[in-house]
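Class, study these two lines:
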Amino acid sequence: LQGLGFERGPIDCEVFSLASLCQFLFSATCNDLNIFCDIGSASTKLVIQWAGECLFTRETQIGGNEYTKQIAAYFNLDFTQAETYKMAMHYGQLHDEITAIVATLHEYLAREIKSCIAEFVNTSRQLPHAFKFARLIMTGGTSRIRGLEETLASRLGINTFLLNPLTTPML
C-alpha cells in the first residue's frame, strides 16, 4: 500500500460486526430483506441484508449524545446531568419537556434512516423485483430510549424491534 502512496489507518469494524450478526441470525436461505440498525452514542450504523448477504451499509452522525446535548441545552445542564435526565426518561420517569425533545430527535433519526433506505433502493441493482423489508432490528444503547421503536415502525412502515443479544432468540 505504501508503494501506491497509501498510508495504513484504522478500520471501523463495527459495521462489519453488525453485518456478521446479520449473517449469523439469518441464513443464506432466508429471502427476507432485513435492516439492522445499531444506534450508539455517537452515530447510527445501518446494514441492509438479504439472503445472508450484506448489500448496503451506511453511517449517520446521530446517536444518544445528540439526545443528551439537546436536553443539556434546553435545561442549561452539563452533559452528565443531561444524561441522567435522559436515563430517567428511559426508566419511565417522564418530564413533558424531555418527552418533546426526545420525540423531535426520534423523528429526525427516522428521517435519516428513511433517507439511507431511499439511497439503497435508488442505487441497488441487487433487489428482487417485488421486495419488501421484513423487519428493522435495532441494537445499541440509544435504541432503548422510550418511544423510538414505535416511532421508527410508524414512520418507516417496517416491523421494528429491539434486539437484545443476551435474550433474543435466533430469528
Remarks:
- The first helix runs from residue 14 to 25.
- The two ends are 41 Å apart (CA to CA).
- DSSP finds five helices and five strands in the chain.
